[in-house]
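Exercise 3.2. Students should predict the tertiary structure of the chain below and write it as structure tokens, then compare their answer with the key that follows.

Predict this chain's 3D structure.
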Amino acid sequence: MDHVRGSSLVYPPVIEALRPFIVTAWTGRTTAEMPSDVRAMFDAAEIRAPHVNLALIALDAEGRVLRSYLPFVRPPAFGFDPEMQGRDFKRQLDEMLAGLRWPQVTTLAQRKLTLPDVCAPGVAAPQPAGVRIYLMFSANRLNHYRTPTVEAVALSDATKQTLQYPTQARSLAVAALRPWLEQMYPPAIMDGKGGMRAIEGRLQMTPAGADSEWRYALLEGTVQFTLDNVNVTTYPGNLSVVLKYRRDATELHSVRGVLESLVPKSNPQGQVVERIRMTAAIESLPK
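Answer key:
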């Protein structure tokens, strides 16, 4: 997994316990979204819980379910201490794997980290084929967001048409950039529903000078986000994007931008307990 939407539990002994195995994962908002092969494994594991935040399933080399387990992962029970959570998760993992025959590993594969993309490796794509969005968060009370989230979004023909070079200043609705903007929320804030209830606002697009080879435009404005979660979380974000074009063309060549926001985080009673500073960096693909 290169990136996951959710709170991450990084504890080295957990990684060591899993190292002899081939580890894969699927994440989604509901079991209805499961691909058929994941659903078959889930059903074979006979997991009966109505709500599943995290399920562990061990398979043999033939893909048969050996054991399944729903670990207890509840940050408040450990005072939101990630080390305490990690130790307890490791204990539960050991209990799940107890008695199973572990694979014999002589050489450990070196994992190469890759960023998400909109094209398969080695496949030529027009410039730009899409954008990559890096979500970064300041320190927060729950210590959820130490690892950046990275998303890749394909650039549709409609969006390319909207972002053609402006000969004069004009206004456009943020709906034109919805595929980008709907990625911009903190992990572990969706309360099991997910998605955006609304993304509203208008952006100003203006010419911004030229050099011997390129000309530029600015896209700026405030975006109002409303999440489709239990507390209907709302927050504004200030968006600034530089658009780059060849001197003799109106078609978009590349994009670089940033969005900054303070996202309210509520407790189960609906009270805002903190505001998480979120920065989203945007770059076009391929670079």
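Discussion points: The CA atoms of residues 80 and 143 lie 8 Å apart. The longest strand covers residues 252-266.
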